[in-house]
Amino acid sequence: MKKTLSVIVIAKNEEKNLPECLKRLKFAGEIILIDNNSTDRTHWVAKKFNARIYNYAGMDFSKMRILGARLGSFNWLLYIDADERVTAELAKEIKEKLIRPPQKAAPAAYSLIRRNFYFRRSWPAGENIIRLIKKDALIGWSGPVHESPRINGTVSRLKNPLLHYTHNDLFDMVEKTNLWSETEADLRYKKNHPEVVWWRFYRVMLTAFFNYFIRQNGFRAGAIGLVESLFQAFSIFITYAKLWERQISPKAKIA
């Protein structure tokens, strides 16, 4: 099994999350860490777990995931983020899938359900993501952020969830929003997004709030559901405010 699977972890300033993440990946043949210009002890933590470390400058996550695939030594690739956790049950299921004898109609990739935790509490709705991919079936990744893989072949599904511990406190939430909104605004500006007029702010904020509070059943999570849903509305507001700033101010425009 260890000679079958490469795990690829992308991290930036994740010294707090990495130990718990990496210690759950010992079942793999290798861990490849793509370090996105960390300024904390991310590099040192990764070395403790014998990860192969490569530095990458820039905010294009598709390129980072493609780089990880190229560096992988084994037939299967498992993509994990630093704030995600592979449970013992999920690790066992992955091992069972990969040691099966080859079949003509064998899947080229596996999707799984990611269970999100906000403020360390489970969110009512999960999300389906493709993270376990046969290396020679991976065509590439699309999108600088919110990236998705392109697969040559069929995709099956794993039963056990991946745990995602995000938004653990408001300070980090606001800090990350300020960072990611820069990238999101730049992407929209490069694609010549229509002029941001006053009513667009209301539309994107209401859409975000409705998605989290109603469609994802955030109202079932009590105060946390309300806080998270309002924060998502705030986050998209910041993105569009920065886009608006780029559109009206030459000094704010990207190079």
Automatic annotation (TrEMBL):
Q: Do you know which SUPFAM superfamilies this protein is assigned to?
A: Nucleotide-diphospho-sugar transferases (SSF53448)
Source organism, top-level taxon: Bacteria
User: Per the record, a Pfam family?
Assistant: Glycos_transf_2
Give the source species: Candidatus Gottesmanbacteria bacterium RIFCSPHIGHO2_01_FULL_40_15
Name of the protein described by the UniProt record: Glycosyltransferase 2-like domain-containing protein
Domain Glycosyltransferase 2-like: from-to ranges: 6-119
